[in-house]
Amino acid sequence: DTGVSQDPRHKITKRGQNVTFRCDPISEHNRLYWYRQTLGQGPEFLTYFQNEAQLEKSRLLSDRFSAERPKGSFSTLEIQRTEQGDSAMYLCASSRQLLLPRATETQYFGPGTRLLVL
Amino acid sequence: EDQVTQSPEALRLQEGESSSLNCSYTVSGLRGLFWYRQDPGKGPEFLFTLYSAGEEKEKERLKATLTKKESFLHITAPKPEDSATYLCAGPTAGGTSYGKLTFGQGTILTVHP
After folding, report:
1. Per-position DSSP letters for B26-66, written without gaps between them
2. Is the distance from CB of A69 to CB of A75 less than 8 angstroms?
3. What is the mean pLDDT of residues A55-69?
4. Could B99 and A103 be called an inter-chain contact, meaning their C-beta atoms sit closer than 8 Å?
5. What is the mean pLDDT of residues A76-99?
6. Inter-chain residue contact A103 with B31, CB threshold 8 Å
7. Which residues of A touch B100 (CB under 8 A)?
């Protein structure tokens, strides 16, 4: 059982450039999440998908950010016109939706993509 | 607003010196409390999920417990390889589900030989 994979692991870009990150979830996991983590803080939720549908987006996700999950498999997160404040670790997680009505399933995280905007 | 608060922010222990980390939350209708371990430059690694007050789970030198308002991660006779940041998280409502997690800021644990 392979875990969540993310690509690239590191990205250095200049301010104003566009970047795209990819996440491959654990197979058979129908939910996929994106989080952002800055130094010394816990991860912050950005958005999540159930199959191919994007069900929720955080207020942190400005209109420069867009995420897709075509065919309910891998996902991409694109940041347009990057700013220095976008520098962070971008984490992807996946889970299998539980049928229990009052329980939230465990999310498994990938290794992250570290973005540095110069 | 749902909040998850961890204490202490940092903890330094000698090898073999047992201690506990705290996670308090104000998430209404808690539907799970999650503990993760994170090494520098890596993604969080899942440790435990707790669903009910009174529930306990163990893994090697770690034991997680849950009450109605807080969770503890007990570390017994720690070793230097237990050094990491320990994160706790609770699911919070949004849209039509409780899918997203709200994380605490983490406790940085350092175990000296």
Report:
1. --TT---EEEEEE-TTS--EEEEEE-STT-EEEETTEEEEE
2. yes
3. 90
4. no
5. 94
6. yes
7. 33, 45, 48, 56, 58
